[in-house]
Protein: ALOG domain-containing protein
Amino acid sequence: MELVSPQSNPNNFPSPILANSSARPVSTTPTPSRYENQKRRDWITFCQYLRNHRPPLSLSMCSGAHVLEFLRYLDQFGKTKVHNPTCPFFGLPNPPAPCPCPLRQAWGSLDALVGRLRAAYEEYGGRPEGNPFGARAVRIFLREVRDFQVKARGVSYEKKRKRPKQKVAHHQLRRHRSHHLLMPLLQVNS
Structure:
């Protein structure tokens, strides 16, 4: 099975359909979301990385090891200060002074990137069971990056709990509150 590179159709949109012999094209596809645009850009970047790889790699030959190489390559463009264990600010979330520790990709950015690329791989024709972005080595790498950044930066990455939905509708709550405000007045007047 050959994977499709987005270069063949950069916008990934179907051809416009002509309606009732008018010259104006009618688009049947809604405008892509921010997520879809970012996923397409990430996929193009990854395909470009594979083409520039020495030796060049095809998508069908790509493995989890190549994904790890790509993630390590992206570290040079990171914007998150990650302190080395020997740094005096290791473990401090807000260091009081600058230090020579490197800037890296934040764990959350890498995790989101891998998720988008995993989805894009399957959308462009890859088999889910052969998806290199879902490889065990990639999951372990992301876990290690997260754990190290928690220690180095002193910032935890715990999942935020969703608040339970209130069962009382907003308009019922307002009516309920006003009823309680009027109750003492009713009791005084009786």
In short: Confidence is low (pLDDT under 50) at residues 8-22, 175-186. The longest helix spans residues 170-189. DSSP finds five helices and four strands in the chain. The helical segments are 34-52, 64-74, 107-123, 136-153, 170-189.
